[in-house]
Batch of 4 targets.
Target 1
Amino acid sequence: MAGAPNADTKSERDLETAARRARMVAAAVELAVNGGYEAVQMRDVAARAEVALGTLYRHYPSKDHLLLAALAEQADALRERMAQRPPEGADAATRTADVLHRATRALARRPDLTAALVIALTSPESDTASYKHDVETILRAIITTAVAGANITDPDGVVRTLGYVWLAVLSAWVGGTLDTEQMDLDLTTAARLLLGASS
């Protein structure tokens, strides 16, 4: 058909769009690292990413969308690291605790960013549900790998519950009611309670 874009043109356009989206997410992360959730203002993100404000809103309707996209990227990077260096431990409880510790420590290195990500993940904005689902899917896949081999009757329920515990513990750390050491201890306790007896 005359005038139809060829595959090369479409591929270039897709690459440009992907690069633009990556710049927007990176800009949001940079702002959050230095000032937390409140520092992520859409005009500032657009300026830092060198895109029009309308373009930013077309891809990400709010800063929660941006931050959840950033969290999905971090979770995916964690999944890759786990594939390269699988969780350590002779039983499922120990391996799962290792996964949760490594995920938590990676986030704890940048507390302002982590606080912003947790706020976005727990926000009531209904149209971010698909972004939250993407994050949860990646994290559950990581935990599922660690749980593999455990003799439990409801592995999906255990994985889901561990995800809830991880988020609750991380939220408590962000809120200042837990330090990093206690966070690790609580995650280890949760893994042992859910998996230790039957691993």
Target 2
Amino acid sequence: MSASVLVVDDDDLFRRSLAFSLEQAGFEARTAASAEDAIAMTTQKRPDIVLLDIMLPGMDGLEALRYFHDKIGVPVIFLTARRRQVDQIVGLELGADDYLPKPFDTDILIAHIRAVLRRTKSAQPVEQRPQVIRVGDLSIDPWSRMVTQAGQPVELTPKEFDLLFALAVEPERVLTIDELLARVWGAEYDGQPQIVYVNIRWLRQKIEQDPRNPTHLISVRGVGYKLVASE
């Protein structure tokens, strides 16, 4: 199975180009335009490595590094246009596994990624099995990526599962279309709400007794969607 790489950078063109190059090299690439979106994405699927820019809107890369390093133990390579030596020292002291200033050759970056993955693979702790989330008669198991409803298995596509899980992590809370796009599909799908609408419709066909009158997957007009036990 290919290694999963999460690219966190607010430069749209750079992010899109790098994700394409990583996929061409055989990696699974996901992207986020902010540290907050990246952290939300890791609650759904833990990446094998994070490529992290220091200069980000909102939470910066140094602060985000603490989460990736301390909370989920994912190796991090800093990618930044800032060349000050102090940034490199601080980043490495806080736990970054490598540091590569922009611009860089993609082949060199890929070599760094593979080296970090080899180096950290044996040192990473065994993951604790995440807890099953229950919302009403729905049970969502992020470990096996299985969903049951009233004890019966529900067959979902990978994106349908990711969408349901994103909503189940914060039941009763309305998640906006933009939040769902960022957490489930990544930053490259910004401004494409139709993909959310389509997957919501498919998901309702599988978990709602009457998809036209949903009681679990509720629309909040002009805002987004929420998952509830029943309504």
Target 3
Amino acid sequence: MDISVVILSWNDKQYLEVCLQSLKDAKPSRTMEIIVVDNASTDGSPEMVETEFPIVKLIKNQENLGFPKGNNIGVQASRGKYVYLLNSDIKVLAGCLDALADYMDQNPKVGMVGPKILNRDLTHQSSCRRFPTLWNNFCAATGLAKVFAGTRLFSGEHMFYFKGDRLMDVDVLVGCFWTVRREAVNEFGLLDEGFFMFAEDLDWCKRCWEAGWRVAFCPAAQAIHYRGGSSKKKDAVWLALTQQRSVLRYWKKYHGAAANFGIRCLVFTHKASRWGVAVASYLIRPSKRKDSEMRMKVAAACLRDLFSRHSAEGVGTMAQSDAINAVPHA
């Protein structure tokens, strides 16, 4: 088997059907298998796969296991030389699968490659990131990354200055669409299941680089990411806490005490300023009070959690107690 496509799905029937149809229409010249890992959907997604796409291997989890664990189940069930991990709201365009496999064939030191990701209007969607540093997090927290969005120096982790117009090695590929070499994964390992969602892409790409494999961006291959929003269906506070805990877990895993103190100070400053802005908006914009209240609630929850015992321990305890939260990247 040359190509294994693994799709993690959670209550995303409409987009999953589009994704599977695009794979059928953009069938590569190589041998391919498609595996859908369903994280206990209740919207009829598994039944749709069984009825409309009987050739697809469907794995039905009895509970929502999270983004890393759900994908790992699919990878372990796959047989391909190259494994493509797709969000369910991805539409694969013609030639994409072969272009990625061709690139891997021609570059044996590349362990992971991603295509050019497009918005639904076919404009470029940023899918490359730099590893987090105190500096790029400072730029994001203070707003410098927005003011100087087109510059590398003041940008945050997201490479918004990069327009996806050339082939290049990158630190991190956002996890909506990865192509990984099985030989490489056998060395640097599966996704870290200590992350429930968020930051597992940083961790996986970092381990790929540390194992001596390259991570690359290949614009010759293209796909549309609808950002259908499995995560948008979740509570805003839950999402914010999950993301914050995942970020702090990543820093604890790879950085020392001084850097961890620094990132916590930046997170505190950022959340405190967001709370202050939300309070001001609540007072001076009565028509927006509902939105302001939610932003105040989210920021306050993050500030409280920053000093809790759960902070920086990952999201395992919290996430596993909420069995419906394993979602693809938004």
Target 4
Amino acid sequence: MSVPAQLDWAQRLQSIAQSGLAYNPQPFDRLRYEDVLAIAVEMMTAAFDAPDQRGALHDLFASMQGHATPKVDVRGVVFDGDRVLMVQEMLDGGRWTLPGGWADVGESAAESIVREIREETGYRTRAVSLLAAYDRNKHDHPPFVFHAYKLFFRCELTDDARVPDPRNVETGQVGWFRAEDIPALSLSQGRVTAAQIARFFEHLRQPGLPTDFD
């Protein structure tokens, strides 16, 4: 499922406005970029049917600095035999997903996913390969304000001991699941789809598969 056209247009207009404002334009051009930003906000609120969020969305877009680029979401695919590691997403009623989150500034993508797995599951791992680099807009994820890439790393346990992080409030239980036993997924949060998990099990069965992209 591709992103709705109206949302795609709004994301592109927001990107044009943010990047244009980043390069210290002349006063007339600055006004035009600010107008483009306002149009992006109107289109975005219409796409989400949330006119009451116009002010908050404008403030969010206006706070973005520098040349606009896609955001990066990292996810960890950790196998134990024929089972994959999953966590409960507390923001989505306890449904399940792969551990992960937004990549942090100052870390490589691989460092970010190792940290996310440790924080959300209590397991220590190392990233061993990149299974997929997906454009979020080209997969069956719910609409999102910003354009984002999703990087799925195959990770291996470095220690069987699990030490939960007491500061973790984003995820609940941790579990290992076979392909035929995948629980209800946290689809509303756009973390991972059933088709993507099925594809990662194909990578498990065929380790020589190349990295997926787009």
